[in-house]
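lol ok so funny story. i was supposed to be doing the assay writeup but got distracted and ended up predicting the structure for this chain instead. priorities right. anyway since i did it might as well share w the group, maybe its usefull for someone
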Amino acid sequence: MRVLKQQLAPQGGLFGGARTLTPEGVVNESEYVGTMLNRHAARFLSQHGPVTETEYSREEAPRRIWDDFTPPDFDYRNRWVGKGGKKAMGYDFYDLTSEDLALENARGYAEFFNDRMGGASGKNYYSACAALCWTDSAQHGRQSYSENARMSGRVDPCRIKKQSFDYFRVMQSEAPAVKIIGHWNYPAPTAANYRYEEKRFNGTYWEGTGVWHTRDPHHKTVYVVASYPVAAVELLVNGRRVGRCDKPQNTFVFAFPGVDVTQSGWVEAVGYGYDGTPSASDRLETADSPAALRLTLHTAPGGLAADGADIAYVDIAVQDSAGRVCPLCDARIDFTLDGPAQFLGGYNSGRFAGYGHDDSVIHQNHVYAECGTNRVFLRAGTAPGTIRLTAVMGSIRNVITLQSMPADLAPLTAAPLPCRLPEYAACAPQHRDAFVPIPQADAAKYQPEDKCYTKILVNGQEPDTRGVRSVNENGR
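and the output, tada:
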């Protein structure tokens, strides 16, 4: 592969390698080596050349579940559907909300960020790292999961941004940035609100125990993710300071325990640099009841081509009277389509047909809002014309229209098709080191591990421990 690369790309600039290279001869041929949470290999592989961690976060959570303080379940209620058929046994073991996933991703990223070349740990192992995966998808047959997808993505299967998108954006920012985890629409305590059933893992899935508890929304921990240059974060609720944190956990997470999240209004996080001045902020506001559906159309740059194949998609946002997205809305939204196009529908996590359930939205004329938003798709017909899409949620409705454009429907020939090339900058980007070390940040944020870990092999193979490392307790 290296020799072939030199023949095909003699100008250079490309690197040949792969993840999990172990034979010495192959390692010596490679120009970089990837690891999959194989920290023990990184120590000696880094002496050979650049090392990239390729799968440092394998945890999963669906987009629709905010945290353990959010209705309707005040928990993540996983719907295991038993053994057999598509929904197979052994895939419903995840029990994370979006908030939990954010904290796990921060823990994973912080480890490899601090072990990077020039990082705070001084190990100088990694030149790059990548989380798994960019998008929720059915990879590895994960339609067997009752969530219909592997849910490690930054975006969901329709490419709608999940909460983790913003957390990674902030953690990977070289500029000061902060993001409050969650929303600010927590309901008032009632006899029904904040009750949840205790769960236990039975070796296959999480099941209810029949024991119920009540969470205390007057004392919730609010988390703020902040980038490397941020020294401290101040949290304000309706203009009143409720806390200041300058000792983050896992480098990027600033925690504020004991916050009353039932206070409607607004919450703001203000980040401060190491010079003591405000450098970044984020604000969440309480949304009122749903009052409107905002429809946003997306097509190719030239519009929707009436070729029988081109796709347009429409983003739906449930808004209050002030234009704020209603983060708790999970209502059904129905659609009707008029004109020369086909309505393809959308996607919802955790909804499927069969095995005792019948709420799949795939190729249906409706979807459900998830955290107040969703997305649906249209396929153009072969005749140009006016297309009208109507969305209805209860008494709320909106209409969007578009005009499909004439397209060449002649049979294909050997002549090359027109190609839209990307627009490059006039000058090539200049090389520079990413994340130049900030000594004050490293001294304040880095926490060395206090345990010794070991690698376990069974018949020469490392068992899948879902990212949980084995502690070496025998001192050797």
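The chain has a mean pLDDT of 88. The first strand starts at residue 17 and ends at 19.
back to the writeup now i swear
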